[in-house]
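Subject: Sanity check before I submit

Could someone independently write out the structure tokens for this chain? I want to compare against mine line by line before I put it in a report. The sequence has 531 residues.
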Amino acid sequence: MFVFSAPFTVASAQTYEVTKLVPGSAFHGVHGLGIDKSGRLFADSVAGAAIYEVDRNNGTAKIVIPPPEGMADDMAFAPDGTMAWTGFLTGNLYSRKGEGPIKKLASGLPGINSLAYRKDGRLYASTVFLGDALYEIDTEGVKAPRMIMEKMGGLNGFDFGVDDQLYGPLWFKGQVVRIDVDKAELTVIADGFKTPAAVNFDSKGNLWVVDTALGQLVRVDPKSGEKKVVAQLKTSLDNLAIDEKDRIFVSNMADNGIQEIDPRTGAVKQIIIGKLALPGGIAVSSDNGKDTIYVADLFAYRTVDGATGEVSDVARMHAAAGTLEYPMSATTKGNEVILSSWFTGTVQVLDRSSGKTIEMLHDFKAPHDAIRLDDGSLLVNEYGTKSLVRVSGEHGTNRDVVASDLEGPVGLVGAANGEVYLTEALAGQVDRIDKGGQKKVIAKDLKTPEGLALTREGKLIVAEVGAKRLVQIDPANGDVTEVAANLSIGLVGDPATGIPTSIPTGVAVGASGTIYFSSALENAIYKLAKK
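---
Independent answer below. Compare away.
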């Protein structure tokens, strides 16, 4: 059951100064790369659902195909210049010739990932992670995709060689293979990789491979399988493209970055980079007067110095050392940081000092936030079941519903006496739930409230994303006071490929009262201090 509190009032008080603590970046995670006949460099984003053109000279990027059709994990150019790309989450494959209309070539292929044209213009694409198959795609979009092979082991970014054979990495097997697509025959040509993510040929017939787990760019002789590491980069590499001068461009999803590598010397030039990839939920700890912000950055888990804005990596996606599963929310208690990901259904508990994983819990239904209680149990906002779930027991096997019928539970914060506050983004309200599971609405008629934090004075700071502002809520009477307005927050999710709240706007409050919030729109962290 639930009850309403006293009538709500709204006030406005611009008493805070807003400053950008961590600057933003161009992409929302960067994946596939492509170079057209004129030498223009393009980059893909799945979470950003857009295709960008990158200016190599000044390190900037602009959207050329916007959401939702622009969602792309990889791209390829046909002999006639047609661009094709894969909508990983939508399961759609699109093409576009020049400035002409966008054409849907295939649909119903969740996990559609990599693609390449043969020299005769025929198009091939593979599903990875959400599937494991290789298809021929009708370039007119009339015939259904024709499956060639399946269960290869994660055929990711591939390319065709001068022999008209397909060469590509098997993500889950650490191998690079050659496939005769006409005979559906697969041959291993090189192995011993940790996690090979993509391959491309240069003009001399060398095969170049990026190993995302090791952060390596490797040259492979396609005949002998001999390997040579040419450049040691950071982990979380995604894809590569090679231009007509054999300059190699490599994308890094955790850095929102693209690098140019000289194939002869291995010299690296940074084309574009960001401090953060796609920040969602945040938490803060205050030790000896210093605030440290813990950021769930989708492709990485990072810390930010609350005074200087310095960003440090703790863990990166797909790195050989450590485990991370697309973190989207973060909380902290004691010496723990708790990350959750609605996309992978995971809650991960890490040691705040060492960054090592203490627990990794799976099989939640879209967990949007999780906190540790004083009794050692966890509370999880389970968006997929509209529930607040208590998790206890060895390996988190005991899972009991504390409160149900919640409309879009997103933010979660603990309070005194075993009570918690949470946001119902779709209902537009903030609730207090006692340890017995009774719900009391303390503020309503809000526009998509997401992240929230509790001040030392017992007030709530809430990101009212639909109104582009932060508000303070007094739990005692429901009074709502505007803290800061006209904020760059609220990356809207596509219900067709995820959930409306997507990457949540995180809020945290330091011991001194300094407020921090994330901007997924800009990939930035902001700081609010009293004037």
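---
OP: Matches mine. For the report I'm noting this point. DSSP finds no helices and 50 strands in the chain.
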